Amino acid sequence: MKRREFIKGAGVCAVAGAGFIAGAPAVHAQQKFRWKMITSWPPRFPVFHTGMEQFAKRVRSMSGGRLSIRVYAGGELAPPLGVFDAVSQGTVEMGHSGSYYWAGKAPELQFFTTAPFGFTAQQINAWFYYGGGIELLHEMYSPFNIITFPAMNTGVQMGGWFNKKIESMADYKGLKMRIPGLGGKVVARAGGNVVLLPAGELYTALERGTIDALEWVGPYHDLKLGFYRAANYYYYPGWHEPGSTLELMINRKAWEKLPADLQAIVEAAAAQSNILGLAEFDAKNGAALNELVTKYKVKLTRFPDDVMKGLHKLTRETLEEEAGKSAKTRKVYEAFQKFAAQVEPWSRMSEGAFMTAKGL
Ligand code: CA
Question: How large is the greatest C-alpha to C-alpha distance in the chain, in angstroms?
Fold first, then answer.
């Protein structure tokens, strides 16, 4: 018996040895990749940028140092909203940003970040991973030579910081607000004057009165950015961004040069970032909200029901209009709506009913 086991063991060694001499994996094992990633976020910006630095660290560790990624903040190698062009053209191998920033180039991409009154984090992840969402995401980015993976989610955001009260839909008329994506189009439809600014420019714009209102993400970021010093009212809920996904963007040529095992590592690390980002926000938003209210005496204000109804109506009109912009946008919108019809009755029965039962 012992001898037979020894022979079997020797056989395994021999096969492994033959693979080492003849096989491509041994060649790949020697090849090292040094990549650059640019983000749309300010340097050391919590969760978004630091999350990508942690992503790079995990990839380096999982690959035994074969894939090393240096992460640059927005503005270091390209403007914060220049990530799409830099990754598409191959100036850098990777980027981290949100699809809705590219609505001007490709309106079909907006739905992959979020839609007003659309999916929560849990729902959009169900769409991406088990509802055909990732396949559709890859299809839509394909003409731009970009491969993307969901790699962070904010959860439900706050409604934003306002220097003018919103008591009825009429208060949106002429309101100068920083708000991106489809939500911004809804505000514009309500008569607002919508602008898109990166994180680094928000505080000054609000403080100087260049804008009357802004939204960013939620209490944790908002506390750090100091918006409570520049605005009177903090509104909720973030009807316009109920679970925004940010993406890891990879230049296709660079991606195709990676051996399959490194591709698998990147994909796994992106999925991990998708979970970790949401968990970090959920863990830290509550404490920050408490600090804003108790220490800085921020006035929390819920949007009136009539305003929510009005925005909901305008959202339906806006999404229909956007869908009419191209065949691709129609295709994404219909896939989004079809999955909503599948997932929402279940969410109502599970999360919704449970939250109500819990008194939340
Ligand atoms: Ca936002």
Answer: 88
